[in-house]
Amino acid sequence: MSFEGSYGGDASRLNPEDLLECGICWWVYDPAVGDALADIPVGTPFASLPEHWTCPECGAPRQKFMVIQA
Ligand SMILES: [Zn+2]
């Protein structure tokens, strides 16, 4: 597994439109979709997700997510 695109907890490396993929279960966070389960509105950048937000599929913390290169 490559960690080239690892988010690593550094939100400053993220663009507002970036998609991020869970490193555990491969669930994808898309800012254009948001996360209805966690009341995250459409258009919310990954970097703006609340600190307590975790993967809705497996509960992994934000630091486990990796940027998907377009
Ligand atoms: Zn997950």
CATH topology: Rubrerythrin, domain 2
Q: Give the helix level as a range of percent.
A: under 10%
The chain-level structural class is little secondary structure
Identify the bound ligands. Answer: zinc ion
What oligomeric assembly is this protein in? single chain
| Unreliable parts | none
What is the level-2 CATH architecture name?
Single Sheet
End-to-end C-alpha gap:
18 Å
Spatial order of strands in the largest sheet: 2-1-3
Mean pLDDT: 88
- Our estimate of the beta-strand percent is 5-15%
**What's the helix-strand series?**
EEE
| Domains (count) | 1
- The whole-angstrom Rg is 11 Å
The major sheet is characterized as: 3 strands, antiparallel
What does this structure look like?
This protein has 70 residues and is mostly loops. It has a single domain, classed as Rubrerythrin, domain 2 (Single Sheet). Helices cover 0% and strands 11% of the residues. The protein has a three-stranded antiparallel sheet, with no helix packed on it. Strand 1 and strand 2 form a beta hairpin. Zinc ion binds next to loops.
What topology emerges from the helices and strands here?
Blueprint: E1 20-22, E2 28-29, E3 65-67
Antiparallel strand pairs: 1-2, 1-3
Bound molecules: zinc ion.
Question: How do you describe this structure in short?
Answer:
This protein is low in regular secondary structure and 70 residues long. The protein has strands at 20-22, 28-29, 65-67. The protein has a single domain, classed as Rubrerythrin, domain 2 (Single Sheet), CATH 2.20.28.10.
